[in-house]
Amino acid sequence: MIKNGHHATNDEAGSGMPGASTCSPEKRKRGVVRLWCDGCYDMVHYGHSNQLRQAKGMGEYLIVGVHTDAEISKHKGPPVFTQEERYKMVRAIKWVDEIVEDAPYVTTVETLDKYNCDYCVHGDDITLTVDGKDTYEEVKREGRYKECRRTQGVSTTDLVGRMLLMTKTHHSNMDNPDYLQHTDNFGKGPKGHSPWTGVSQFLQTSQKIIQFASGKEPQPGDTIIYVAGAFDLFHIGHVDFLEMVYKQAERPYVIVGLHFDQEVNRYKGKNYPIMNIHERTLSVLACRYVSEVVIGAPYAVGKDLLDHFKVDLVCHGKTEVFPDKDESDPYAEAKKRGIFRTIDSRNYLTTDDIVQRIIANRLQYEARNQKKEAKEMAVIEAMKRREQQVEEGGAAAQATH
């Protein structure tokens, strides 16, 4: 396993199997706080990564439980990605020390004790079982629950809606009637609007980038490797590619050049990119194989860029290389220097493939998210009723005195 972009041995990280996370009493006495997060982690995005970053900040060792396809289908509906894909995506997030496969959907004190975890950490939204119960009710009651802030501007629901649009402005025009129609289908019901499912516009800040960035400069002896692309809807195909790139050197320092939205739309067309440049920056920075990101990198990997970053190796996957505006090869300079390498990750999943998965199962995902919204609204109404009963009880007590 790699911690924050650097290798750790399997002994340090744990194997992810039951019992592997047990730590010695001596280590526990030294005050190592072990934390547990769990979830579906379907279509892993920077919102998930930010939750795990915040959780890691509350302790020293973070274990993440990931639910199976069967469990997710039972409580929510079919996931977009398979459990094997989701396991690998979560392992690639640099704040994760260990993952537990086939994690139970309802988090219990027994689960925390099994993996020697002090606390469970979750966002300030709510996760409900198939019958509408809070999955964290028990650990909250026992004082073993900590909360972090939900990341505004993104949700799996929102991303699914974006993928069903055929417009170039879906990420910059939140008032677009087509976009609003899809958010109506995916995140709103006729009887109300859940604050947990809703999405507000993502606002990038320099502080957020700093929180995600490693801040580590290349050191003497590091091999500086440069890759470039859209890295849109950051997925398991990207992870497998970056992992293979990372393995090209003994001491790799991987720099990812991200193209601006307009550039991506020029060579990809359709409604791409699905995520804007700011969202893609955070998604890539969260990957443990990445050391640095160039925001708005030039499409042609030219002399100035190679010299500025002192690049030793330039890599590209097996995907098509689109020519530059003048029809030239964007990797011509790297090939001339003999530092260009084609990487075969053996994973040929593309963003297009993911979009096709969504479109093929559109009705299922619409039904899933409408059901989720209905459950959340029922909980909100119940909370309001309880508050009203408490207020009425207090008023009645005052009246008797």
Radius of gyration: 23 Å
Helix content: 40-55%
Rounded mean pLDDT score? 81
Order of helices and strands: EEHHEHEHHEHEHEHHHEHEHHEHEHEHH
Classify the beta-strand content into a percent band.
5-15%
Figure out the total of helices. 17
| Helix/strand class | alpha/beta
Find the count of extended strands (DSSP E, 2+ residues). Answer: 12
Characterise this structure.
- This protein is α/β, with parallel strands linked by helices and 401 residues long.
- It has 17 helices and twelve strands.
- It has helices at 10-13, 25-29, 46-56, 69-75, 83-91, 109-114, 137-141, 156-163, 177-187, 206-212, 236-246, 261-268, 277-285, 303-308, 332-337, 351-360, 362-400; strands spanning 2-3, 6-7, 34-39, 61-66, 98-101, 119-123, 145-148, 223-229, 252-258, 292-295, 313-316, 340-342.
- The strands form three sheets. The chain has a five-stranded parallel sheet. A five-stranded parallel sheet has the order 10-9-8-11-12.
- The radius of gyration is 23 Å and the shape is elongated.
- It starts with a strand and ends with a helix.
- Mean pLDDT is 81; it is low at 1-30, 166-174, 178-192 and 194-200.
